[in-house]
Amino acid sequence: KQEVTQIPAALSVPEGENLVLNCSFTDSAIYNLQWFRQDPGKGLTSLLLIQSSQREQTSGRLNASLDKSSGRSTLYIAASQPGDSATYLCAVPRGFQKLVFGTGTRLLVSP
Amino acid sequence: EPEVTQTPSHQVTQMGQEVILRCVPISNHLYFYWYRQILGQKVEFLVSFYNNEISEKSEIFDDQFSVERPDGSNFTLKIRSTKLEDSAMYFCASQREGVSTDTQYFGPGTRLTVL
To answer: Mind listing the pLDDT tens digit for each residue in B86-106?
Structure first.
């Protein structure tokens, strides 16, 4: 059974800091890993999808890495801004379809 | 940019009542999903739907739940007799193809409150 865990559960940083969010999964036989952003009371916005054959994927100030063999992914956010404040979720598919989500990291970036 | 839409944004109902949550997936997508998130908990998979039938469902998705694609655009989740524990945020998602290169796109969610 696939279990996805994220640490830390919450993170508070001043604006401008670079930060790393961690995601670990127990079954390394994954096709991809997806990072989402969730604003309070809102839906899920896909940030990055990294394929199992890739080691990194970048979008703007975001960089996701994937190490399948160790069951880990990191989301690096450069030069954080108050607008980055949200909950960040990672998810891996069981098979091609059903996503298994992590517990999330709640990020607060202070001006 | 195309997006998944859901209605209503918030639904309040009495225990035992039937509710229908509606979703309009992205138009050229073929795979559809419902997930839910109980307050403070993980997002959980409920059901996937392809080619007018359920392709997978979780143990949460019991006989009280059903899904339907009544026309070419809507995708609905029906809960026949709501329970207090059905209170949650329900997310619809769609995917162009059920392959590993494809992102699942999520709607904004419907908050269901069962009193």
So the answer is: 999 999 999 988 676 788 899
